[in-house]
Amino acid sequence: MPANYRFSDYIPPEDNAPGFESLLKIFLQLLTITSGDVREALEWLNELDRQYGLTSDEYGMGDFLADLKRNGYLSEDPGSGEIKISAKSEQKIRKSALEEIFGKLKKGGKGSHATPHSGLGDEAGTDRREFQFGDALEQIQMTDSIRNAQLNHGLGTDFFLTEKDLEVTETEHKTNASTVLMIDISHSMILYGEDRITPAKKVAMALAELIKQKYPKDTLDIIVFGNDAWQITVKDLPYLNVGPYHTNTVAGLELAMDLLRKRKTPNKQIFMITDGKPTCLKEGLKYYKNSFGLDRKVVNKTLTLAAQARRLKIPITTFMIASDPYLQEFVEEFTKVNNGQAYYSSLQGLGNMVFEDYKRNRRKRV
């Protein structure tokens, strides 16, 4: 056995040890699913504890509840006795969503971040990529490039460095971006036994937290749309619920464009998360609704707005959480009219696609 190696017994980390932090992660997930209902989340947590033994004799559920209050995650109304989550909990939920979704992106291998619109920028980022024509010499990371050459060619006397060995630090432009995120809250987002609204909420919270931390000069407005459309704040996201609504995509797009007209930034974009077709319009005080097939009256109005957004240089990226062929045909037509982009995503891949598209689009100069 080589003398340079030393071996010792492997002791696995006690990641599953019961305690406040491990229970807090589960509790935050349950708060998102229950739309901020503390009592329901605690009931679910107690049921999970009964089935899977999350607590121990040393640290029980009562201890966890006391720690939640002591650490400022919960507040209790003195009059009604109602328990609510605090601002600290709301921020923790956003950070948890960011770690859950964006953390997976950071684990990807080389080349997983497709950024065809990046290039010479103003400030260095943390991403690395292969050298491309036009990159500045100061972007080259010599230590990493030499390591690549050693791995690719060996350490012989004829050691050499090629263009393919060079690794550079990605740069990002300082241009600001204004994004409107549209979230479908029609009834279909919880139909067929599939919870689609919770992943959409998590993506919205994670995107908001990312922008706050990494791109503080960017703006993010959030819109929900059902029979109507209205703006919500990031603070409202944990409490967001699906309603008995149809899908008024037109109202959402009109509100999104109104918000972006007021933004004085060069890069403007709309992200739309939906699982279905537009089925509703508002005509005066009445609603025009048709859930059967693709109603041409509704579709034509939606396509008119897609063309209007294109004239305003506002690309629309549609994240369709559905795989019906006729819905894909509609989305393809909508995307062609707007000259935007469309993704047909599973719930698991939604966060990955939103983050990559956001990073790519904000690097464009208009």
TrEMBL record:
Supply the Gene3D superfamilies for this chain: von Willebrand factor, type A domain
The major lineage groups are: Bacteria, Pseudomonadati, Bacteroidota, Cytophagia, Cytophagales
- What superkingdom does the record give? Bacteria
Q: Where is this region: Disordered?
A: 107-126
Task: Spell out the Pfam families in the cross-references.
Answer: VWA_2 (PF13519)
SUPFAM superfamilies xrefs: vWA-like
Record domain VWFA: where: 179-277
Q: This protein is called what?
A: VWA domain-containing protein
